[in-house]
Write a structure and sequence with these properties.
Blueprint (H helix, E strand, L loop, with lengths): L1 E5 L9 H6 L4 E4 L12 H13 L3 E6 L5 H5 L4 H17 L4 E4 L11 E5 L5 E6 H12 L10 H13 L2 H12 L11 H9 L6 H22 L2 E4 L18 H10 L5 E6 H4 L7 H8 L3 E6 L2 E5 L2 E4 L10 H15 L4 E4 L19 H21 L4
Helix pairs in contact: 4-9, 5-6, 5-7, 12-13
């Protein structure tokens, strides 16, 4: 594997020197200063590229070029934003960067209910609690019609869980949902969030899928011309939330996308954590079936405390996903294509080593440092045990 690391640019408190010392060869970055829909100028791409190169690494993966909400809804200035997207892809290709990770999740990026879930050793990680989110939806956000979208068991438990939270706990959930993520969305107030949700009224699962397929097919000629690979990140969590459809959540969704979008440059970011948000997903089988069009990987793991509650694992290799088995399939794919694929550790724990830093949720130094070391050790161990790899 190529050892990757997500870097948030000059605003990131983790320096490129520290990243290089972690053993990283390939940086995963973006022009976070640019808003969705804007064209990325060649000069700005090259400036960031040079900064990474001067630190002894390569900027090889973009995560991400955000897709404007107008494109997802095919409303407003969506045609202009699609043209801008094409220009950005061409500019990235001019600079030699040809792997672009993106997602098609409406309004929100990945969603959690707790950004500081405490593990037994005192470190913290991210947690998803469906009951807390349902409570937030029904009793804090008070989204019209929310109650109809949860079954009786979930409604009852959500009410009990929400009422057991004090005001600080309820605010913790609200802040986790409404927090802006770098380069994706801004911080939202409840009123702004409700207003954005309302803009998707009438856009169901079928329509959002059609919008995504149309977008991908419209940019496919540029992909063929430039050789840029678009690798979609699975929905996180991989099921509808807040009345919004999710359309890239499992093997069936991936297969349908490939059928509707035949370009060989339309591929997948294999994120074991996002796929693991549905216990029915089998990331190993997904790698076996779709490995030829996996262009980028996020490896992490989850532990469940309830069928609707999970948190990030203390060890990247242990949890919902059989990561050693998946990594074996990953190495087979690298061998088949004769080239290495960028892998980055994802959602590391927040540890004592980072107490003096203000890190983005899930993107601490210590936790990802350990995660990368675990993945590196797994790779070496598998190659030693299985000589053919």
């Amino acid at each position: 594997m190529k050892q990757g690391w997500r870097w948030y640019g000059d605003a990131d408190e983790i320096t490129l020197k520290e990243i290089r010392q972690a053993g990283v060869t390939d940086v995963v970055a973006a022009l976070y200063e640019r808003k969705p829909g804007e064209v990325w100028p060649v000069a700005e791409i090259k400036a960031r590229q040079k900064k990474v190169a001067d630190a002894g690494m390569t900027w090889s993966v973009v995560e991400s070029v955000p897709i404007h909400e107008d494109i997802k809804k095919r409303t407003g200035d969506y045609k202009k934003y699609i043209e801008n997207y094409k220009k950005t892809l061409k500019n990235l290709a001019k600079c030699g960067i040809k792997t672009v990770c993106y997602n098609f999740m409406p309004v929100l990026d990945w969603t959690r209910s707790n950004l500081e879930y405490e593990l037994p050793d005192g470190s913290t990680c991210l947690e998803y609690n469906e009951y807390e989110l349902a409570g937030f939806d029904m009793f804090y956000l008070k989204r019209p019609g929310a109650e109809k979208e949860y079954d009786a068991k979930t409604r009852a438990k959500a009410k009990k869980v929400w009422n057991a939270l004090d005001k600080k706990g309820q605010k913790r959930v609200a802040d986790a949902v409404l927090m802006g993520l770098p380069g994706t969305v801004d911080d939202l107030t409840p009123e702004e969030f409700l207003a954005q949700l309302a803009t998707y009224k009438g856009i169901d699962d079928k329509q959002l899928r059609r919008n995504m397929y149309d977008f991908l097919n419209e940019i496919s000629p540029v992909l063929e011309e430039t050789g840029v690979n678009m690798c979609i990140h699975p929905d996180d969590p991989p099921h509808p939330i807040f009345g919004l459809p999710r359309i890239l959540s499992n093997a069936k969704d991936i297969a349908q996308m490939y059928k509707e979008c035949p370009s060989k440059h339309i591929g997948l970011t294999l994120c074991t954590g996002s796929l693991g948000g549905d216990p029915k997903n089998n990331a190993v089988e997904i790698m076996k079936k779709f490995g030829k069009r996996v262009f980028f990987c996020h490896f992490r793991n989850l532990e469940y405390t309830d069928d609707k509650v999970f948190h990030e694992s203390q060890c990247h290799l242990v949890g919902q996903t059989d990561l050693p088995k998946l990594f074996e399939e990953f190495l087979k794919e690298e061998k088949r294509r004769g080239e290495k694929i960028v892998v980055r550790p994802d959602h590391g724990r927040f540890m004592e080593i980072d107490k003096a830093r203000k890190c983005y949720a899930g993107y601490s130094y210590g936790g990802r440092l350990i995660g990368l070391a675990e993945l590196r050790g797994l790779e070496i161990g598998l190659k030693y045990a299985k000589k053919g790899l």
